[in-house]
Design a protein that fits this description.
The protein has 14 helices and 4 strands. With 310 residues, it is mainly α.
């Protein structure tokens, strides 16, 4: 509460920088005060200590999963209910136009302060569930990397909608857990995906979904489906070209791979010219096809928007 009162006295970039500075101060304190924070080794625990309650000890991973799932659903329901309250509406207004909120008689700093307190409450729930799941808390849990990962997920999903950060969290977990077990270049793919979102969908994936809502309500989505079906083919070809290029470059640089890249279940020798020639053809075909498909997609959108006019 004390830190929140200090940080919320400023808005925008200044608020973000102060919050980042306080987070780094906590991270440094975790290493400077090992008796309290546990130092580099952190603080470990055992979630199955104590007598089982109704046969539930939280030792098996399945029981922990259900515990986390239930608390996530409860927290999500509470957060959504809060967004429908006057304070939730004020928070949206302060985010969009704090000057106008102040003009109508509300204090933007007080609204930000209350929102920070509420967000700390739900962050505490998330931290407690993480402690139960991993049975350890280290300085990495309060580092700038962890905070940046959360912000990255929120941006990718879309910070302007309720379900946007949820979508972003699912995609981030996919990159960090599922994709990292398949390729060493998963972090590069995540970075490229983030750059594409910044360039072409700054509102996040949620904005791409919500922009179709008016057309869907009028039953005109069928006008866009053929164009999307045509556009997805060259997009997949470009994706295959990107994956082939990245994986072959990684295979050339990775001595442990023996100069062999595995692409779509096939072993490829990047030292030969054949895979590079095939990849170049994929780049040319995918780029040209997507450019043509993008023109048809724009025409389909124009037609759908015209049909919406009374």
């Amino acid at each position: 509460m004390l830190f929140g009162y200090v940080t919320t006295r400023r808005a925008g970039t200044t608020f973000s920088m102060i919050t980042l500075g306080i987070g780094e101060m906590v991270f440094a304190s975790a290493l400077m005060l090992p008796d309290f924070f546990g130092g580099e080794g952190g603080v470990s625990t055992n979630r199955s200590i104590g007598e089982p309650l109704l046969g539930i000890s939280f030792g098996p991973a399945r029981q922990v999963y259900y515990l986390i799932a239930v608390w996530c659903l409860i927290s999500m329901a509470l957060m959504y209910a809060w967004t429908q309250t006057p304070l939730g509406r004020l928070a949206n207004a302060v985010r969009d136009n704090p000057e106008r909120v102040a003009f109508v008689g509300y204090n933007p700093q007080r609204v930000r302060y209350l929102v920070v307190i509420l967000s700390a409450f739900f962050a505490g729930i998330a931290g407690a569930l993480s402690c139960i799941n991993f049975e350890i808390v280290t300085a990495e849990n309060v580092s700038a990397v962890r905070s940046g990962a959360v912000l990255l997920a929120a941006f990718i999903g879309g910070m302007g909608t309720f379900f946007g950060p949820i979508i972003g969290a699912v995609l981030t977990v996919f990159f960090t857990v599922a994709l990292s077990g398949i390729t060493k270049a998963w972090l590069l793919y995540l970075g490229l995906f983030f750059v594409l979102m910044v360039m072409y969908a700054p509102g996040g994936i949620a904005s791409l979904l919500t922009m179709h809502a008016p057309i869907l309500r009028r039953g005109k989505l069928g006008t866009l489906l053929p164009a999307y079906g045509v556009a997805i083919v060259p997009a997949l070809v470009l994706l295959a070209a990107l994956i082939a290029t990245v994986e072959m470059i990684y295979a050339v640089q990775d001595d442990s791979a023996g100069g062999v890249a595995t692409l779509f279940g096939l072993s490829v020798q990047p030292a030969t010219w054949t895979p590079w020639a095939v990849t170049a053809v994929l780049w040319a075909a995918g780029g040209g096809g997507l450019r043509i498909a993008a023109g048809r997609l724009r025409a389909a959108w124009d037609l759908a928007l015209q049909e919406r006019q009374p």
